[in-house]
């Protein structure tokens, strides 16, 4: 069980500041959409109408709304008050039924959740878990909220992002190109310094074991670049289709799946 002492206040402040711009910068970008489509594909294959799902670090609620449109109930949490405010504003126009509930809560405090009923599964999309220092505790806390056999989908930034290395190396920015490689970096978001952790796939498996067993892993954004390359992609939009097609071929291959911008892992809650 973790406590408030391990929560990063700087990360929360940074995302509060970013919240109003987040959808324009990422959710609505061509690259963000391309990356999210892969996650939605996996979420659709994993959860069924009538399921009750826990979402960590939900941001502005894009995934929760998607699941609600598919008849899935979501209890969605995020550490940032501003992200939760924006997500909640979407409820009435987009999901008038009570399938989604947004609440402010950091991942480090999810042991405080008292669900209406046991969750049928859980997920965390796009790097919220990269802001958490101790994923062993997160795994323990999640395990207590899910029955054996339940799926857990997590999408994290990778340690080695090949397109980022190439993009910044070509521009002579070597420290940016290799910033993830040590496993930890301090990211500047506006005036806030946020600790970001980049566990390898092996470390993640170890952190989530024995409560969770890894069932699959796919790479996201192996040749499709990170979202800060959006201006270039907008100039050459056809290139995105080509890169997406290449990613489709590479995304499940063991050598490549951990070299994208993100990795999407499907765990299963182990038998007690
Ligand atoms: C890159 S955004 C992803 C948001 C959303 N999942 C999506 O798919 O667009 C990362 C999110 O993680 C949240 N976050 C960062 N650290 C967190 C923590 N310790 N607990 C909960 N949420 C956190 C941020 O507030 C932000 O909304």
From TrEMBL:
Keywords: Methyltransferase, Transferase. Coiled coil: none annotated. CDD domains: AdoMet_MTases. Pfam families: Methyltransf_25. Signal peptide: none annotated. One of its GO terms (biological process) is methylation. GO terms for molecular function: methyltransferase activity. InterPro entries: Methyltransf_25 (IPR041698), SAM-dependent_MTases_sf (IPR029063). Residues 53-148 form the Methyltransferase domain. PANTHER family: TRANS-ACONITATE 2-METHYLTRANSFERASE, TRANS-ACONITATE 2-METHYLTRANSFERASE-RELATED. This is Methyltransferase domain-containing protein. It comes from Tunturiibacter gelidiferens.
């Amino acid at each position: 069980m973790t406590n408030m002492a391990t929560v990063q206040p700087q990360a929360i402040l940074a995302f509060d500041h970013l919240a109003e711009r987040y959808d324009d910068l990422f959710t609505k970008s061509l690259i963000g959409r391309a990356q999210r489509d892969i996650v939605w594909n996996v979420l659709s294959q994993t959860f069924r109408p009538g399921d009750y799902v826990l979402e960590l670090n939900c941001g502005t609620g894009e995934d929760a709304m998607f699941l609600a449109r598919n008849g899935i109930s979501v209890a969605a949490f995020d550490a940032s008050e501003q992200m939760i405010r924006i997500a909640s504003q979407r409820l009435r126009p987009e999901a008038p039924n009570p399938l989604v509930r947004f609440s402010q809560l950091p991942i480090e405090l999810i042991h405080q959740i008292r669900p209406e009923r046991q969750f049928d599964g859980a997920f965390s999309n796009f790097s919220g878990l990269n802001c958490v220092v101790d994923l062993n505790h997160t795994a323990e806390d999640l395990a207590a909220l899910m029955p054996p056999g339940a799926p857990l989908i997590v999408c994290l930034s990778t340690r080695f992002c090949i397109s980022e290395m190439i993009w910044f190396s070509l521009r002579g920015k070597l420290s940016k190109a290799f910033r993830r490689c040590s496993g930890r970096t301090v990211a500047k978001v506006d005036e806030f310094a946020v600790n970001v952790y980049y566990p390898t796939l092996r470390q993640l498996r170890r952190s989530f074991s024995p409560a969770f067993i890894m069932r699959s892993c796919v790479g996201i954004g192996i040749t499709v670049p990170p979202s800060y390359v959006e201006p270039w992609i907008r100039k050459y939009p056809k290139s995105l289709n080509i890169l997406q097609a290449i990613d489709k071929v590479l995304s499940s291959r063991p050598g490549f799946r951990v070299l994208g911008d993100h990795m999407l892992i499907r765990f299963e809650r182990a038998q007690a």
